[in-house]
Amino acid sequence: MIPERTLTSELREHVGQRVRLMGWLHRLRAMGGVNFLLLRDRAGVAQAVLGPDDLAPLEGLHAETVLSVEGRVVESPQAPGGYELYEPQVEIISPVRDATPFALYKDRVRATIPVFLDHAVIGHRALERRAVLRLAAGVMAGFRKSLSALDFTEIQTPKLVGSATESGANVFAVEYFGRTAYLAQSPQFYKQIMVGVLERVFEVGPVFRAEPHATSRHLNEYVSLDVEFGFIRDHFDVMALLTTVVRGILDHLQETRAAELAVLSVDMPVLPESIPWIYFPDAQQMLHDRYGVKDAIGEPDLAPEHERILGQWAKEAHGSDFLFVVGYPMVKRPFYTHPSEADPRYSNSFDLLFRGLELVTGGQRLHRYEDYLAAAARFKYPPEPFERYFEAFKFGMPPHGGFAIGLERFLTQLLNLDNVRLATLFPRDIHRLEP
Amino acid sequence: MIPERTLTSELREHVGQRVRLMGWLHRLRAMGGVNFLLLRDRAGVAQAVLGPDDLAPLEGLHAETVLSVEGRVVESPQAPGGYELYEPQVEIISPVRDATPFALYKDRVRATIPVFLDHAVIGHRALERRAVLRLAAGVMAGFRKSLSALDFTEIQTPKLVGSATESGANVFAVEYFGRTAYLAQSPQFYKQIMVGVLERVFEVGPVFRAEPHATSRHLNEYVSLDVEFGFIRDHFDVMALLTTVVRGILDHLQETRAAELAVLSVDMPVLPESIPWIYFPDAQQMLHDRYGVKDAIGEPDLAPEHERILGQWAKEAHGSDFLFVVGYPMVKRPFYTHPSEADPRYSNSFDLLFRGLELVTGGQRLHRYEDYLAAAARFKYPPEPFERYFEAFKFGMPPHGGFAIGLERFLTQLLNLDNVRLATLFPRDIHRLEP
Questions:
Q1: Cα–Cα distance between B269 and B56 in angstroms, integer?
Q2: pLDDT per residue as tens, chain B (435 positions)
Q3: Measured between CA atoms, how close is A73 to chain B, in angstroms?
């Protein structure tokens, strides 16, 4: 808010003038006679050229010192961004007297994942890391923009719930005024209920999974991009909406985050006009017949290796980085899943594979009250905690469906990251609660 | 996604044509010869005129039955919205065989708050309640829009934290793989840390307060609209930004939610170009001298009654529904608060009163590492859990500040609701964890 501040990205508009940059000492390349000070602000990095006498205020200070640098803007093709500051006057805003645990100025962070995560509060300042976080914000914005344009309303549902609604396992317990509450594993019931109120809803918010395994693909807290809407014919309407949303997100990133995509050398995926789809039993048959997978047929689910092969097939046969697998067996789907009318062993549900990894699960849900009572009985759920939710179905729900995209998983695949922990600010896993 | 569906708000474009509406049976006014079926969809309510024979499919069914109604559009000044359907053909999509616990078609819900909340999963379908939820979405969208235009980046910070960072009291404990985790009371530290990465950040997300009192003003889980940004001079820069954001929210509501504001007869507040402000000791002096408040002077905080009087004064003296009270005593502010340079007994912090109620707290934060170490020692905080957060300050933070707006409290004041529980989907309080 200091009015006379100029951003590093604005130098081209001030050639020949003196301006004031403010930011962090990204790097000091002291060469003796001519020294280069790289200053980082929210817009990027710019360089100031320092003579030997200009170095005095920086004596004993380290990278990340917060600075104000005044100087005359000169066009300079070799400088980062094409402009640099001459005759600089350097002022210290916040001095740094120690070296950072690893260098933040390099193109790629050279620290192991645990070391990086231990120091993520500063590690995220690296341009590479910052780009990931800016892209995460872009995914959320693109998601909301696509849905708002289609008359969806944003909701915020409770994260403290009275009962574990999705399944009893893998839920965190909370001491709640002498009772036990649970952390919501998903907004599933709430978003369905809200179809009865607003027809079309979405939510961006945290979900909590108490899964006790430490893999490179799981987080115990992550951001879920949830959608639910009414008056659908079946799950193909849900797939059409999901295609629109994924396209909206990718377009939004290209429109507003081109610099970050370039920093990370992101290979943008191919998303055809209409994403190819394959029926679940046909996928198994093809895995067997064409790829010699022996144990595929008859299983109720696809193994990660099967998904990988199918992803490759989608790329080769359809030129697509995305593939819908449609009609998973009912036995592997949650109790609110709508069965196929034609063959009730199979469901009106789908997975969206992105480069051979399951990215989204979605489908049509049950909408009749009687169907919920029957499903709850079949799964032996006690009626009591569910009664209040089922009230929404008792009082009229249209055919509806939806999906959920895991923000961090989407970024991991899009950016080709080694570990989902690198796709979030401060990951939570079985070993890590800090920072 | 059924292509031939028309919304109730689109009838004017189809006069003379047959269209198909889909939605909920809002009300059936059976008068014998001529009957009126009110159908509600996400866009509003429209009427179909039914002859005695058209009633047959509705036999035994109740309000909230999901319907498809085909009919010819006729202009009709007495009909809701100015158009109605003639020669209707009614199809039942989801029948309802019971009466709702309270009527959902009335202008105002006539149920006590506990009864309403017990049945909120359907209660929110009332137009009045739905308008509140649509306005909540509008506040979030206006907040994000204002900040995105100023180059702020959205973040999502962890809600599971390893230690109670704000204060040890009023924090929910979570069983976390054999350890104890806590639910974040605010994203305070995280948003400050992220100033070091992105300079300007905001977050929309849940916060959790284990306050054991049941008042009409408190929730144990609510949505916090958080902002933090760097390179400020002092708290007046934060107040200027907050003014811009509140204006952005109100403008966005008027641009995009005029119908909902009308449904609730909202009296839009007066927000002057610049919100008036009063220095904390001066506010106390004025309360004493002008309003005869005996116990105001010398206290470290303002009582709700004092805030009410000050709100009235702002309205009378400045024509403003908003008032900043600036420079609260340090003793009542959290340890990260930046003191005034001129008089370190007072802080560079403020409250924003909205119609005499504290709506926002904000201010400038400490930014020097030494200041954090000193403050933590003064408050006798153990260094260990804070160390990882303080690392951000050790490695260079600019002067910065921010604020947090409670979404539900803002709505409660804006809409003049009786109880903050009516400003959220499914409130959580000491007694209520469901629905």
A1: 49
A2: 334 899 999 999 999 999 999 999 999 998 888 999 999 999 999 999 999 999 999 999 999 999 999 999 999 999 999 999 999 999 999 999 999 999 999 999 999 999 999 999 999 999 999 999 999 999 999 999 999 999 999 999 999 999 876 566 799 999 999 999 999 999 999 999 999 999 999 999 999 999 998 899 999 999 999 999 999 999 999 999 999 999 999 999 999 999 999 999 999 999 999 999 999 999 999 999 999 998 889 899 999 999 999 999 999 999 999 999 999 999 999 999 999 999 999 999 999 999 999 999 999 999 999 999 999 888 887 767 788 889 999 999 999 999 999 999 999 999 999 999 999 999 999 999 999
A3: 21
Residue A28 lies in a domain: yes
Record: contact B183-A174, CB cut-off 8 A: yes
Complex ipTM tops 0.85: yes
Residues A187, A83 within the same domain: no
In 3-state terms, what secondary structure has residue A154?
Answer: strand
Asked whether the CA dihedral B260, B263, B264, B265 is positive or negative, the reply is positive
Kindly report the CATH number assigned to the domain that includes residue A333. Answer: 3.30.930.10
Which residues in chain B touch residue A42, judged by CB atoms under 8 angstroms apart? Answer: 151, 198-200
In sign, the C-alpha dihedral spanning A285, A286, A292, A295 is: negative
Is B90 in the same domain as B226? no
Residues of chain B with C-beta less than 8 angstroms from the C-beta of A151: 42-43
Q: Do A395 and B200 touch (CB under 8 A)?
A: no
Q: State whether B360 and B216 are in the same domain.
A: yes
Structural domain count of chain A: 2
Does B310 map to a domain? yes
CATH number of the domain encompassing residue B62 = 2.40.50.140
Distance CA A71, CA A39 (A): 12
Q: What one-letter code names the amino acid at A179?
A: R
Last residue of a domain, one of B94, B109, B130: B94
Chain B: residue whose CA lies nearest to A212 = B177
Residue B318 and residue B358 in one domain: yes
Omega before B334 within 30 of 0, i.e. cis: no
Reported pTM: 0.97
B235 to chain A: closest CA residue = A1
Radius of gyration of chain B (CA): 26
**Stretch 396-425 of chain A: residues touching chain B, C-beta under 8 Å:** 396-399, 407, 424-425
Contact predicate B123/B64, CB 8 Å: no
Does some domain include residue A435? no
d(CA A223, CA B282): 45
Is A100 domain-assigned?
Answer: no
Calculate how close chain B gets to A2, using CA atoms only, in Å.
7
Examine the domain organization and report whether B34 and B159 are in the same domain: no
Instruction: Specify whether B74 is located in the same domain as B127.
Output: no
Q: Which domain holds residue B356?
A: 122-423
